[in-house]
Amino acid sequence: MSVYPPLSVQQAATMAGTSATTIKRKITAKELKATQNQRGQYLIEHDDMMTYLAQQRPGGRQGASSKTGPELAIGRPDELVRVLERELDQAKERIRSLEGRNERLQSELLSLMHELKEALTGNKKTGLSAWFGRVLEK
Question: Are strands 7-8 and 35-36 parallel, antiparallel or unpaired?
Answer without folding.
Answer: unpaired
